[in-house]
Amino acid sequence: MGYNIAIDGPAGAGKSTIAKLVAKELGYIYVDTGAMYRGMAIYFLKNNIAPEDTEKIAAASKEADVSIGYEDGVQQIYLNGENVTPLLREEKVGNMASRCSSVPEVRARLLSLQRNLAEEKDVVMDGRDIGTNILPNADTKIYLTASVDTRAKRRFDELQEKGESCVMEEIAKDIEERDYRDMHRKTAPLRQAEDAVYIDSSDMTIEEVVQAILKRCKR
Fold it and tell me: Which of 10, 55, 68, 95 is the most exposed place for a label (fewest CB within 10 A)?
């Protein structure tokens, strides 16, 4: 049985960045579950399935094979054998992933892969329901969040660096809507596990957050 670190939290909280650094520091495997859902989302978008058409999403999920690989220690997401990692951060992919992640058939499709990895390896896994649903017996659980304004500014800066045009207010509104969907979905909603440590990174540096998590790892 591997040592499992579960990091949950809303969109834009910095979970992926922090989880990668924690995994690197400990020599663990980093598992980005959100990227796996984004991989599924790419399949639905390629097949012109509307986000609200849950019946088609459920049916199509059977045809989408999402797997994880590692190249030079960096996680890659494969969709039916094709590396789709460069497409994962597109805004339309994130929005579709937020919608399709509430579909039970989609979650079931990915759950076994995630749990098998955690059973066999020491992992740092981040997402929306890791500590509450996917790895309820994780050795260390973290709920990482930040204010909506802070998360919107981070996303705005990220898009600006890529040369993409964006409006701060629209990003903030999108984050609020995504939070509501994630927290109110019927299947495995986003919430803090009872035994998770709450960390608000709004006024913390990345290194401060990493060290705060490492201090809670008892291995």
Answer: 55
Q: Domains (ranges, CATH) in the chain?
A: 1-28+122-219 (3.40.50.300), 33-121 (3.40.50.300)
Residue 70, pLDDT score = 83
Higher pLDDT, 185 or 58: 58
> Where are the extended beta strands (E) located within 73-116?
74-79, 82-83
For the entire predicted model, the pTM comes to: 0.78
HSE toward the beta carbon, residue 50, CA cutoff 13 A: 3
Q: In what order do the strands lie in the sheet with 197-200?
A: 29-32, 123-127, 4-8, 140-145, 197-200
Q: Residue 68: which H helix or E strand, with range?
A: strand 66-71
Give the model confidence (pLDDT) of 128-153 as tens digits: 999 999 999 999 999 999 999 999 99
